[in-house]
Amino acid sequence: MKIAILPGDGIGTEIVAEAVKVLNVLDLKFESETALVGGAAYEAHGHPLPDATLKLAKQADAVLFGAVGDWKYDKLERALRPEQAILGLRKNLGLFANFRPAICYEQLVGASSLKPELVSGLDILIIRELTGDIYFGQPRGRRQSPDGLFPGAEEAFDTMRYTRPEIERIARVAFEAARKRGKHVTSVDKANVLETFQLWKDVVTEVGKDYPDVKLDHMYVDNAAMQLVRQPKFFDVVVTGNMFGDILSDEAAMLTGSIGMLPSASLNANNQGLYEPSHGSAPDIAGKGVANPLATILSAAMMLRYSLNQPQAASRIESAVEHVLAQGLRTADIWSEGTTKVGTQQMGDAVVAAITKKTITKS
Ligand code: NAD
After folding, report:
1. pLDDT-based confidence at residue 358 (cuts at 50, 70, 90)
2. I want to staple 8 with a disulfide (CB 3.0 to 4.6 A). Which of 43, 68, 234, 265 is the partner?
3. What range defines the domain where residue 124 resides?
4. Which residue, among 82, 86, 90, 87, has the nearest Cα to 9 in the 3D structure?
5. 3-state class of 325 per DSSP?
């Protein structure tokens, strides 16, 4: 097993260090190599995704990624901005399936903006198609409007498109994932208005016939947005296109109340994947030792489960995270009265201790 470790910018280096610490106590045999990405890579090599970093990522079974970005790079031309590194990795590794779990830990139920009874026990997996849809469809651009309401006026346009194979492969990913969970897939579309999503619905329905053990239902995206806050526990696996998934996965994330807790995975057809927390590089708290490393630690668990075929090791990490939360240990972002505030490293140490069953000392 080879893991490429790309800590990136801001809190990326702090939180990835904790995830690596956790991986190192699991008695797994893996090789790892660390490389620069994002703003750090731009500073050193003049590009956010240098060739050497891309080569390392391509050769690895999995990439553990921290976060990239800082306000100071906002004035750079788009191709050189740190965030382009993520897009470059997605494209070059063919990462078409994005997994975003939204799990509400019992101890953090109060952090959600929804009523506890709505989110207690919540465990949703949003699977978003990541390389197609209106974000990548051609043609796109700006021009003088050739027709329509205001001929000759300046207009901008994008193209929403999906091919049958693109829909088929993401649908299969969703059904396979559902088989390992609650055996329920909700496909989210806008088939009532969009041709693209009528094809989406038709293809998902066809693929669903190969999975008679998995319940399939279809929901329009506007209704899905509503049901996610009305009765979120209805959902098990949600599969949808790139744009709807972008929006719904952030909505689902917020049901759990804390962005510092949410891992994510992006996989290609060979289960090679990029694993990263759902949050960014948090420049406002970088270097202060207060960032929550749990989303990154949980991303490492997803990496073990989905790319490295080590489900037991993944479960050990996930149980250890639940254990430290049950002990009342909290970083500042999830702290509440009556719990113990710890820093980034202490949280990582506590997870390590829970895995190795050593006594955890509160600070
Ligand atoms: P952000 O997710 O970095 O931060 C939003 C808020 O959440 C901040 O107040 C931050 O302190 C807090 N936060 C985030 N992660 C936390 C953690 N682990 N523990 C405690 N608090 C945490 O989003 P932003 O502020 O909009 O963006 C900052 C930079 O990150 C920008 O340059 C943006 O482009 C970049 N970004 C990168 C990624 C990525 O690398 N995948 C994703 C989103 C944003």
Report:
1. low
2. 68
3. 97-129+164-263
4. 82
5. helix
Q: CA-CA distance, 334 to 56, in Å (whole number)?
A: 35
Domain boundary residue among 223, 245, 263?
Answer: 263
What is the Cα–Cα distance from 80 to 228, expressed in whole angstroms? Answer: 36
Pair 15, 116 in one domain: no
Q: Where residue 108 sits, what CATH number does that domain have? A: 3.40.718.10
The first and second tokens of residue 15, run together, are 């939180």
Q: Could you give the CA distance from residue 174 to residue 187 in angstroms, rounded to a whole number? A: 9
Is the pTM higher than 0.85? The answer reads yes
Q: Are residues 256 and 298 in the same domain?
A: no
| Residue 362 pLDDT class (50, 70, 90 cuts) | very low
Let me know if residue 319 belongs to a domain.
yes
- Name which residue sits closest to atom 11 of ligand 1, judged by CA: 282
Name every protein residue with a CB atom under 6 angstroms from any ligand 1 atom. Answer: 11, 15, 67-70, 83, 86, 259-260, 276, 279-285, 291-292, 295, 333
**One-letter amino acid identity for 197?**
F
Q: Does 112 lie in the same domain as 254?
A: yes
Span 278-288, pLDDT tens digits? 999 999 999 99
| Residues 27, 62 within the same domain | yes
pLDDT per position as a tens digit, 95-140: 999 999 999 988 888 888 899 999 999 999 999 999 999 998 999 9
Annotation says 215 is catalytic: no
In tens, the pLDDT along 309-319 reads 999 999 999 99
